[in-house]
Amino acid sequence: MNNVAHIPSYLSAEHLGPWETFLVQIDRVEPHLSAELRPLTPLLTRPMRALIVNVPIRLDDGEMAHFEGYRVQHNLARGPGKGGIRFHPDVTLAEVMALSAWMTVKNAVVNVPFGGAKGGVRVDPKQLSLAELERLTRRYTSEIHILLGQDKDIPAPDINTNEQVMAWMMDTYSMNEGRTSMGVVTGKPISLGGSLGRKDATGRGVFVSTVEAAKRLGMDINGARVAVQGFGNVGEAAARLFAEAGARVVALQDSSGAIANPSGLDVHAAKAWRQQQGRLSGAPGAETIDADRFWSVEADILVAAAMENQITPAVAERIHARILVEGANGPTTPEADLILQERGITVIPDVLANAGGVTVSYFEWVQDISAFFWTEDEINARLDRIMREAFTAVWDAARAKGIPLRTAAFVLGCERVLLAHKVRGLYP
Ligand SMILES: NC(=O)C1=CN([C@@H]2O[C@H](COP(=O)(O)OP(=O)(O)OC[C@H]3O[C@@H](n4cnc5c(N)ncnc54)[C@H](OP(=O)(O)O)[C@@H]3O)[C@@H](O)[C@H]2O)C=CC1
Ligand SMILES: O=C(O)CCC(=O)C(=O)O
């Protein structure tokens, strides 16, 4: 069956966006699923639940503003919903559906006991004051309250949301419940039941999975040239960890533009500059380059840690790197994926490469529920082990079957999800 042919009635064909990418990925993986589980594939091509909410807030000047928000639970077969909350002007239902579906696959790839969910509000948070952002977060949390709970659906940070936003979400949920619920949100501040290691966890997972790939490809991380798109939670931590391991970070990009230095950038100085100026471009010790030139920079490893659909066919033709690591969700279009494959570029797919964040979110949830907290060394050691094991399982399956890492990761994740459905049994 061609899953792309299946479009839910609430999405128009023109507005499929990243959901179409997900459906193409499912089309590509379906022939490789076991004969026993393949007939259940349609369960993955429809989200289980999608809630659309209006988020009205009073702005500081007394005017009312309305924002559209979403929480989608794609699949709950393996456990409560888990996935981040995005505040961005381009958020759509189709995007949140895709992000929730990638969470389903990702959570299964690293075998954490969660289903897939994701949420978002179509808003440019850079235009809001801190007080407006807090009102928006609290109202959105109240509107999606009916879906939330530590055993139902557990949000976390994503683009433009951080520890403070998670603290407001946890507080709003707790106020509405009349009790303090630590485990309802992860990525919280340490002072509020957050976990050591969560802040860097996604970047750390990106780093660990790249080290594993480099080992198998005979590439030394020490001295390797690395370019990173996105310098937020994921990209900054990844760039820092690569630099600490002796790699040369030769280019960085945020939404303001790109900076490059073939001899290596000072990641700490770039971070300090961005904190002061609110942008990367113009950072000292680097050449500010055209955003499009970023993709042609001579690098061995390219980390995409910004948004979806960044690696288009035109970009895929120009990439120099031997390894593309998807720190972001859905950065590569399905057409570009085929070009990268033909060009022999190893793509470490999002559902594996960026799974470090949700893995430490799982640790945070376990710590909150058991009210017993671990050391950072324990957390990092457990994270590294889970990432290495997941990478090895995906790499070995890809080599054994002669398929790309993305397809192998999807086979692993989708089969775990479909097996849960099969064992639970479908309603007659
Ligand atoms: N946070 C997490 O734990 C996880 C995040 N991810 C994924 O990683 C990606 C990044 O998330 P996260 O780091 O949390 O988000 P942040 O909001 O912390 O950072 C996003 C970064 O991407 C940059 N960016 C946005 N749009 C563009 C663009 N068009 N071109 C270049 N750079 C751009 C932003 O620049 P600027 O600040 O200038 O706007 C910022 O530097 C997303 O795809 C997210 O879904 C995946 C797993 C877990
Ligand atoms: O930490 C989490 O629960 C989810 C993080 C996330 O949104 C993602 O992995 O894309």
UniProtKB/TrEMBL annotation:
Pfam families documented for this protein: ELFV_dehydrog (PF00208), ELFV_dehydrog_N (PF02812)
Keywords assigned by UniProt, alphabetized: NAD, Nucleotide-binding, Oxidoreductase
Glutamate/phenylalanine/leucine/valine/L-tryptophan dehydrogenase C-terminal domain span: 195-425
GO biological process terms, semicolon-separated: L-glutamate catabolic process
Ranges that cross the membrane: none
CDD domains noted in UniProt: NAD_bind_1_Glu_DH
Site (Important for catalysis): D158
SUPFAM superfamilies per UniProt: Aminoacid dehydrogenase-like, N-terminal domain (SSF53223), NAD(P)-binding Rossmann-fold domains (SSF51735)
UniProt-annotated binding residues for NAD(+): T202, N233
Catalytic residue list: K118 (proton donor)
SMART domains, per database record: ELFV_dehydrog
Residues annotated as binding substrate: K82, K106, S361
GO molecular function annotations of the record: glutamate dehydrogenase (NAD+) activity; nucleotide binding
UniProt family annotation: Belongs to the Glu/Leu/Phe/Val dehydrogenases family.
Protein name, per record: Glutamate dehydrogenase
Species classification: Bacteria, Pseudomonadati, Pseudomonadota, Betaproteobacteria, Rhodocyclales
